[in-house]
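Action item from last week, closing it out:
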Amino acid sequence: MHSLKLRLKRVGIALGLVAGIVLAVEIAARTTRATHNWRVRSLGDKLHISVTGSGTPVIFLHGFRGSGRYWEPQVRKLATNHQIIIVDLLGFGESPWPEDVSYDVATHLDAIHRTVEPIVRGQRAAIVGHSMGAILAAEYGRRYPQEVSALILLDAPMFRSEGEAQSRIKEMSTMASMFSVQRFWARASCDLVCAFRPLLFRLAPRLEPTIPPAVARDAVLHRWKSFDRTLRNVVLRSNMERTLRALGPLPITILQGSADRITDPGRLKAIATETGARLIFLPGDHNMYLRHPDEVVQQIAEALNR
């Protein structure tokens, strides 16, 4: 009996410690999220953007779990002839991370439009999007066809179902699968990121040494709801083939890494033939821009000047 009581006491202590740790993590996470939203409160319902240059506007949209720093500094070379507008998407980077929004395609498009419309001032803009940003770029072109001059899509995900999307992400890497489509681990890691963001912000470049330090750091700038809802409502439920078919005569350029496993090359060739899009394969994986920025920027420049 004494032994049983001792064991139960130890179990109670262990459970109390776990509960205490969980509570501490939640408090720390809420504090860092509140601090972020307080810091960016001056933006109101608009997004954080960076604007350089003058001329025809070009809007850059980053991929999932990223920020506008993804494009820095190489795309600045285009500012000689173009107005470069680099966007942090809603719930990511230095943009607001609202609590009670759906983070679906419509939510993201609304935020992008009300942010960039006063800047482009009626001019038609080209939109460059990487990965999830390519999905939103195509959807933006479908919603606002009179405001878009061209689409340039990098490493565009083309899924025909949510199941295929999950399978493709799993094929990319075990880490991509664990911390995205497997919600338990994704939620746990996201809560820890929120709780220890100041520390992880410094450690991120060491954890992801193959990408630029600024890009690695900004990969921790989001909250669980923006992460999870955007993944499920934008990425996993996307249908870019259908969207591209609905765009009509809008000029489209698709730049794809030859080693990118997110989309079947045969499917890309078929949709390019069907829609009249230019399809160009370049060396690299799903982050070919980071591997070969000068070559990708050159291709973007050529697409803008067509």
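Closing note: The CA atoms of residues 166 and 270 lie 22 Å apart.
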